[in-house]
Each structure stands twice: as structure tokens, then as C-alpha cells.
Design goal:
Pathway: Amino-acid degradation; L-valine degradation. This is 3-hydroxyisobutyryl-CoA hydrolase. Strands 1-2-3-5-7-9 form a 6-stranded mixed β-sheet, sandwiched between helices. It is built from 17 helices and 11 strands. It has one domain (8-395): 2-enoyl-CoA Hydratase, Chain A, domain 1. It is α/β, with parallel strands linked by helices. Helices cover 45% and strands 12% of the residues. The protein has helices at 8-21, 32-35, 61-75, 99-108, 114-130, 147-153, 181-185, 193-201, 208-214, 226-235, 242-253, 264-268, 274-285, 289-305, 316-331, 334-345, 363-370; strands at residues 36-40, 45-50, 82-87, 92-94, 136-140, 143-145, 157-160, 165-167, 219-220, 381-386, 390-395. Helix 5 (114-130) runs parallel beside helix 6 (147-153).
């Protein structure tokens, strides 16, 4: 959300931005080694640089697997003290999953192995980030959407700038806000209501104070100080005590006062402002009805479990197991292929198909998508490998 009052023009800009962010496509020149670069510096700082600027660092399955390979190697390497994740471009940290390739594969064969492979790779990586034993720092400058939030939002140190743009717009293409965002949202103000608002409406957060308020950011560093921050981390001589060293460096690059950045989210949390309501309804109106119902149920369930130790959904692994089932099922529904066509390919903004009004959907219709089995149109078994020996076996009962 911007510092200014919401307007209908903001909504159209959000839609245009969504079109541009997830258009990666696999025909672009380059390889996974070119797009996910790594280095380990003499002081023990390991660096991942996302370098696919034309696609705003949209992530495909191979990029995600390479990213996790680096993290796994570094976690057991005593020479590595901390991990920094950055982008080669100030336009974007990451615009999320490269959905066009996935949609094309589903259109060609609804049983394609690409769907479970993509979600499996993403969700294993998210669990690894959430449980990482070393300082993990994300520089979230520019567009940070969808899986971009998955790469950053579960890490310990999340640096936002005045150019950071955060959003979870997946309902608009027939998916749902995944990447463990429900786990993050459950900890947001209003017993999770602020995060749920972002999920249901696809609203953008473009104000640093809002990003900190929601919990997506931990530190604000102005864009013109990012280079200095990066140099300080790369040249710090005391990374042997990495946690304190990172805290010290980040604190030294924050402005003394953030008072000049207003807090629209906090101001409107209990507001009856008509414009805020209109913007929320307009955002919801862009979402696929079935996706909205899945989102509402999933986020409410995770929020209710947040303070219940022993409940699987109170831990990131439990949330990701549930989202794997939901992700595979929603991605193989006609809504997804049609949503990608309407928003990202033909760009006519007129999806056809499952256009029943929201009141037509009932929880009973969601149950097949929430169960541990019954993946429509699938006839294979797939194992989701997660930390701590968590294994989900997903198989068709059809």
C-alpha cells in the first residue's frame, strides 16, 4: 500500500505490474548457473545473487533446486558464517514462480510431472530457509512477490527499502497465495487479519513502515545505502560471531528516524474509510472464486492453529505439507491455465470458465482439495521430502 489514499488507478497499476512480473518464459537465453550465482568470501559470507533481470528473477524448478543445493552445502560448511541473498537488478528481488512455463505444461498434459516437481522444490527450500542455522539475510529491493516472499519472508533478516513492492496476487491467476505466506500472515497484526487481507485482495505493500508492520521486513535500509551495507557485510572481520555481527551491521545502516514514512496499514486497520473498502472489494473481484474460497479457508485454519503447540499447522512443515496438496490440485484446475492466459499471455483480463459467484462455492466443494489424497486427474505417486524426515505421499484415488 502506498502512502497516498488508495485509488482505482492503483488497482490498474497493480494488475499491469502483475502481468510484467511473472512472464519469465523458458525461451530466454541463459542457464541456471547464470541465473543463480554463488560465491563464498574470505570472511565467511556466502552470497547468492539472482541474475535473471529480464524476468525479474522469476524462479523455475532448476533455479530453486540450485538455490537449495547452495544452502545445504553452506549449512554444513564451517567456513561459512552467514548467507546473503541479493539481486543483480534494483528492479526486483524476485517476482515469484515462473508460472507461464508451468501453465503451458499443464495445458499440454494435466498429469505433467512439472507441477509436483516445481512445488516440491519450492516448499523444500522454504522449509530449509525457515530452519536455517546460520544468519540468512535477504535484500528485498524492488519487486518481491509470490515465491520472492517465500525466499525472503521465512529468513531471519529481511531488509526492505523504499522501493520494495510486496504482494501475493496468485488468486488473480487461479492459484492461491502459497509459499508459506499463511504461516507468516498468522503472526501479522489483528490475529492474522492484516496478512489475510493481503492474501485475499492481492494488495501491494509499497511503504517500508507497512512492510515492517506486517512482519515481512525486519530492517529498513534506504536504497542509496544498500551498496554500503553490502560492502560492510562483505568486509566485516568479525563474522566468527555472525549473529551479533549481522545485527550490528544492519543497525548501522538504518536511518535514525523513520518518522517521515507514514503507516497506512496501521492507520486503516480499524478504519471504516470507504476508499479502503472499495479497494479491498476491487482486489477480491480480480480473484478466481474457487481460489478465494481456498485462501479464506486455508488462512483461517493456519491462523487458528498458530498458538496451538502440537498442531501440525502451527509449524512451517505442516503448512507446507498442506500447501503441497493444495498447490498441486489448484494448478491442475482449468482456472490456472485460463488465468495465466487471460492475465499473462493474451492479457485480455477476461478469464472464462469457473465464473460462478462466490456464494455458489461451499466448503463441501473444497473438501476434495483439502484431503490427504484425491488429487483430481492424477494417477501417479509423488514424495515430498521435507526436513526432519517429513514425507508426504500424494497419490490419486481416482
Amino acid at each position: 500500500m502506498s502512502r497516498n489514499r488508495p485509488s482505482s488507478s492503483n488497482l490498474s497499476q497493480n494488475q499491469v505490474l502483475f502481468q510484467g512480473c511473472l512472464e519469465g518464459g523458458e525461451n530466454m537465453a541463459g542457464s541456471v548457473q547464470d541465473w543463480v550465482k554463488s560465491s563464498v568470501l574470505p570472511n565467511g559470507l556466502a552470497v547468492i545473487t539472482l541474475d535473471r533481470p529480464k524476468a525479474l528473477n522469476a524462479m523455475n524448478a532448476d533455479m530453486t533446486a540450485m538455490y537449495k543445493k547452495y544452502l545445504d552445502e553452506w549449512e554444513s560448511d564451517s567456513k561459512v558464517r552467514a548467507v546473503l541473498v541479493e539481486s543483480s537488478s534494483s528492479r526486483a528481488f524476485s517476482a515469484g514462480m515462473d508460472v507461464k512455463g508451468v501453465a503451458a505444461a499443464v495445458k499440454g498434459d494435466v498429469k505433467t510431472s512439472m507441477v509436483p516437481t516445481v512445488f516440491n522444490n519450492e516448499y523444500k527450500l522454504i522449509c530449509a530457509i525457515a530452519r536455517y542455522k546460520k544468519p540468512y539475510i535477504s535484500l528485498m529491493d524492488g519487486v518481491t512477490m509470490g515465491f520472492g516472499i517465500g525466499l525472503s519472508g521465512h529468513g531471519r533478516f529481511r531488509v526492505v527499502t523504499e522501493k520494495t513492492m510486496l504482494a501475493m496476487p496468485e488468486n488473480g491467476i487461479g492459484l492461491f497465495p502459497d509459499v508459506g505466506f499463511a504461516h507468516i500472515a498468522a503472526k501479522s497484526p489483528g490475529q492474522g487479519s492484516v496478512g489475510a487481507y493481503m492474501a485475499m485482495t492481492g494488495a501491494r505493500v509499497t511503504n517500508p513502515a507497512d512492510a515492517l508492520y506486517v512482519g515481512l521486513g525486519t530492517h529498513f535500509v534506504p536504497t542509496d545505502k544498500l551498496s554500503s551495507l553490502q560492502e560492510a557485510l562483505r568486509n566485516h572481520n568479525s563474522l566468527d560471531n555472525a549473529w551479533e555481527a549481522v545485527e550490528e551491521v544492519l543497525a548501522g545502516h538504518q536511518p535514525l528516524s523513520g518518522g517521515h514514512y507514514p503507516r497506512p496499514l496501521k492507520e486503516h486497520e480499524h478504519s471504516d474509510d470507504d476508499l479502503v473498502g472499495e479497494r479491498a472489494l476491487a482486489g477480491i473481484g480480480k480473484g478466481a472464486p474457487f481460489s478465494l474460497c481456498v485462501t479464506k479457508h486455508h488462512f483461517a485454519t493456519v491462523a487458528a492453529a498458530a498458538n496451538s503447540p502440537g498442531n501440525d499447522l502451527s509449524e512451517i512443515e505442516g503448512v507446507m505439507k498442506t500447501e503441497f496438496r493444495l498447490g498441486v490440485r489448484t494448478a491442475t484446475r482449468p482456472d490456472f491455465v485460463e488465468g495465466v492466459r487471460a492475465v499473462l499471455v493474451d492479457k485480455d483480463q477476461k478469464p472464462i470458465g469457473s465464473l460462478q459467484p462466490l456464494k455458489m462455492w461451499r466448503h463441501l466443494m473444497l473438501k476434495p482439495y483439502l484431503r490427504r489424497s484425491n488429487i483430481p486427474s492424477m494417477n501417479w505417486r509423488f514424495h515430498l521430502q521435507l526436513p526432519n524426515d517429513c514425507v508426504v505421499v500424494v497419490r490419486s484415488c481416482w
